[in-house]
Design a protein that fits this description.
Blueprint (H helix, E strand, L loop, with lengths): L10 H48 L3 H14 L4 H13 L3 H14 L4 H13 L3 H12 L7 H18 L3 H14 L4 H13 L3 H14 L4 H13 L3 H14 L4 H16 L8 H23 L5 H15 L7 H22 L10 H10 L1
């Protein structure tokens, strides 16, 4: 028995299916087109807002700039250029909490991005969280940079050195300067900047060597001559500092700061009883003057009711100053006075809240030198 013939599909059903398919495809195309149009409009609006925010930032209108940049970021969330611009303005406005929130989101996306870590370091430094800031500076230095990685790493390390200088972290500063010396450009200005930082790090010998190298290439460089003088001053090589300050003054006549430093160095050398070549009488005269200055300074800081230890020291000093020294005993008397001056200076440091500036007071500088 043969099978019955199959009837063809209902033409009306096929037509309806085709119409539905075409309609759905058309709606998809329209939806896609509208979505792209909306996305393009959002991008264009974000671009306009970003440009407005950047113009306002250049004009110093920080808070208006922040509003525009927030709106731009709302239009295109996660846009790196907008995020960076907004972070910069939040920092300028000292809105540290808002900046930190945004930076945390950015770091969650890419924790090794150099620029983002650098901004976080700046926020933490402004908050006074120095240790945490140092960590982020190091991540920035060794992190990823899309443009000019070497230059950006050197710049970040210099920024870190500035933070360490402000916090008087000499050991940490020296640790940053050693690699920076190799990484930084070899131009004169950069080398002099590093040399100055070596002086501040407590390594004036390294500083002096850099300045000497520069002066061998350019003997007329007054700034390098002054830098070498400051390095020798920090080493308490006052005679060497005097010669370099004098040379700098000749190269740059009329510079008040150089002249002040030269005058201070001259005062130190005129007061220092340990200077080579002094006659015994001159050495005694200087040591007695040093005791007298130390007594006056200690009495001034101790007030009207000094501790018993200070009273004894000042009494001993007064007795020594009144004593007549026989001919031939000047050298021995000078040694006694120097020992007494050191005792007075140590008492000054122990009992008084503040000590004279070690960078501007001749007596303090001479006594610090004697104490070494």
């Amino acid at each position: 028995m043969s099978e019955p013939a199959r009837s063809p599909a209902n033409p009306s059903f096929l037509g309806t299916f085709a119409l539905v398919f075409v309609s759905a495809a058309g709606l998809f195309v329209i939806d896609t087109f509208l979505a792209r149009m909306e996305q393009a409009e959002s991008l264009a609006q974000a671009s306009r807002l970003l440009a407005q925010g950047q113009r306002l930032a250049k004009a110093g209108r920080v808070f208006e700039s922040i509003d525009r940049l927030r709106a731009a970021l709302a239009s295109v969330p996660g846009d790196m250029e907008t995020q960076v611009a907004l972070v910069q303005e939040l920092l300028a406005a000292n809105k540290l909490s808002d900046a930190k929130t945004l930076l945390t989101e950015m770091l969650a996306h890419d924790p090794t991005d150099g620029r983002t870590n650098l901004f976080m370091a700046r926020v933490l430094a402004k908050e006074g969280r120095t240790d945490a800031a140092i960590t982020y500076y190091h991540t920035a230095i060794y992190g990823k940079w899309s443009k000019d990685p070497e230059a950006n790493r050197v710049s970040a390390r210099f920024e870190l050195t500035d933070l360490l200088v402000r916090n008087d972290a000499k050991r940490e500063l020296l640790a940053e300067l050693l690699p920076l010396q190799d990484e930084a450009p070899a131009d004169v200005q950069t080398r002099m900047r590093i040399a100055h930082l070596f002086t501040l790090s407590g390594s004036p010998a390294r500083s002096a060597e850099i300045f000497r190298q520069i002066l061998r290439q350019d003997p007329q460089n007054a700034a390098a001559c002054t830098g070498l003088a400051e390095a020798q001053f920090a080493e308490k090589n006052f005679r060497g500092a005097q010669a370099e300050f004098a040379a700098a003054a000749r190269l740059k006549p009329g510079d008040e700061q150089i002249q002040k430093r030269l005058d201070l160095t001259n005062e130190i050398l005129d007061l220092d009883p340990t200077r080579r070549g002094l006659r015994a009488s001159e050495r005694y005269s200087r040591s007695a003057k040093l005791v007298n200055l130390a007594v006056e300074d200690l009495s001034r800081c101790a007030g009207s009711a000094p501790p018993e230890a200070i009273q004894k020291l000042t009494t001993d000093a007064a007795t020594a100053l009144k004593s007549k020294v026989r001919a031939g005993r000047e050298s021995e008397a000078a040694d006694d006075d120097l020992e007494l001056a050191e005792q007075l200076w140590q008492a000054r440091k122990k009992f008084c809240h503040e000590t004279p500036s070690a960078s501007a007071d001749p007596m303090a500088l001479v006594l610090d030198k004697l104490a070494q």
